[in-house]
Design brief:
Number of strands: 0
Number of helices: 4
């Protein structure tokens, strides 16, 4: 790479640059900043979705406790509207979990200097 600043450095500076880049990571490169941002955002979104799912599961549990009583001789079957609402909350919880898993499973930008060449 003639014309590169690397060749205008002293021996110690060349050694330092080689050691720094030899590990394949440079904090100041845009792709490394974007990768770090991506991982931070995924972690935060996963945490928020986990809180949302826990909240929906708690609401479902409370709803079932309040509206779906033990069967009695007079009322052996639960109220169909209450069952439908409880199932809806259960579906919401499952959908939130699926969304969280999908976000966490997205491909991460590569951090390999060999594939970047």
């Amino acid at each position: 790479m003639p014309g590169s600043d690397f060749y205008n450095l002293g021996e110690i500076e060349k050694l330092a640059v080689n050691l720094f880049y030899g590990w394949g990571y440079n904090l100041y490169r845009l792709e490394n900043q974007l990768r770090a941002d991506d991982q931070t955002i995924r972690a935060r979104v996963g945490w928020l979705l986990g809180l949302a799912r826990a909240s929906v599961e708690r609401a479902e549990s409370e709803y079932r406790r309040a509206h779906l009583r033990e069967p009695t001789r007079e009322n052996p079957r639960p109220d169909p509207v209450a069952v439908d609402q409880a199932r809806r909350l259960e579906r919401w919880s499952r959908d939130i979990g699926a969304l969280e898993a999908q976000i966490r499973a997205q491909p991460v930008p590569e951090n390999d200097r060999m594939t970047q060449r």
